[in-house]
Amino acid sequence: MNDPSKLFPRQIRIENTNLCNGRCTICPREKLTRPVGTMSFEDFRTIVDQCDPNQLKDLHLQGFGEPLLDKDFVRKIQYARKGLPQTRLFFVTNASLLKGDLAKDILFSGVDKIKISFYGVTPSEYEKIHVPFRYEEIKKNILEFIRLKKSFRRKKPTVSVKYIGPMHSFLRFSLQWLGKAVIEFSHVHNYGKGRSFNLPRQKKKATCPMISRPIMQILWNGDVVPCCYDFNGDFVIGNVFSEGLTRVWEGNKYLLLRRMNSEKKITHLPLCANCDKIK
Questions:
Q1: Alpha-carbon dihedral 26, 27, 31, 35, rounded to 10 degrees
Q2: Predicted structure pTM score
């Protein structure tokens, strides 16, 4: 297996903001203690300019927040599209702001895929999770965006709706969205030190697929953390603004993290001990 430190990251995840207009019950917002803010366009540009367009396959444009709250978000997508023409651009949203002029701007921004968190098949189920949003309003936003895309005969962005909930309800969810959007399903997951929905798969010897793959997670202030589940920035590996992307990627902290992972000792880290993704 190739050493990830010798490869440029195949996937980079940039948290453009950790601001959010939701209080979803599955998300540990109340435990967030790191500063809240938005990455400036200049800082975002600095990261993109350091990316290798021939090696970077995916650029995720969100983190622990709602990306559409960022006033420069469309501009950032456009800049990334121009500088990384072959890289797949992707973000996740709650779709509460995906309407009006912003929806049209997103449609023509150059983003390849939008995943919408829509956990519910009825208003009561959805609104119990997605506080304070209303089921019918968000559903209308999604359907209007899909109609807008069709009216302009745009192939991209791909629109997917993702459901987290009981499997027996997923069939009903699928029938509701069949022919309208790509349909995805996932189980609810643990969040570092935030939520514990599932028992860890391994407690002693285990490896993390996120660390095994060449993926880099960057918070809005430039801090690099092991993965998106470290929502509070508990394990900072380095900072791309002060050190540079390549130096962080090849640095001693990342090497130590990879070594622990290859030796199946990743659960020795308090952050990872409760993870249900390790194997």
A1: -170
A2: 0.91
